[in-house]
Amino acid sequence: MTTTTAVEKNMALLRTAYQLVESGDIDAAEQLLSEDFIANVPGCPDPLHGREIWRMGTLMMKDAFPDLKIDVQDMFGVGDKVTVLVNFQATHQGAFQQFEATGRQVSYRSVEVYRFEGDRIAEEWVAPDLLSLMQQISPAPAH
């Protein structure tokens, strides 16, 4: 008989969350977050609190990149944390930050760490390679 460790359960939960985001079921993905979810976002000096912050960011990505594919390249966990190396691929079909849709295929990586409480994702630290993403969707320089 094999027993599933807490780390294995957390990794499975995270894979489920990624699959739900990829399929566009943001409501179901949001239910995997703790009520007092904490997001540590690049460029923000203080953590952001609440599921709504996560939801807004995720919807912004899905609006700009509706065909977002999430490829987990590596995942490992210790204690109550799971670290993921992930590659995102998508087509830029909607406005993202200052850039209107370009129709371009994009691919960028992210290093993400998640902390779990019970059977919920309680906190995230995400470090997406936004510089790479912005370079892919920015207008070509005029010659």
What does this structure look like?
Helix content is 31%, strand content 37%. The chain starts with 5 loop residues before the first helix and ends in a 6-residue tail after the last helix. β3 and β4 form a beta hairpin. It is an alpha+beta fold. Strands 2-1-6-5-4-3 form a 6-stranded mixed beta sheet.
Helical content (DSSP H or I, runs of 4+): 25-40%
**H/I helix tally:** 4
- Cα-based radius of gyration, to the nearest Å: 16 Å
Ranges with pLDDT <50 over ≥5 residues?
A: none
Gap from first CA to last CA = 66 Å
Overall spatial form:
elongated
How many β-strands, per DSSP?
Answer: 6
Architecture blueprint of SSEs:
Elements: H1 6-23, H2 26-30, E1 33-40, E2 48-49, H3 51-64, E3 69-78, E4 81-91, E5 105-117, E6 120-128, H4 130-137
Parallel strand pairs: 1-6
Antiparallel strand pairs: 1-2, 3-4, 4-5, 5-6
Task: Sum this structure up briefly.
This protein is an alpha+beta fold and 143 residues long.
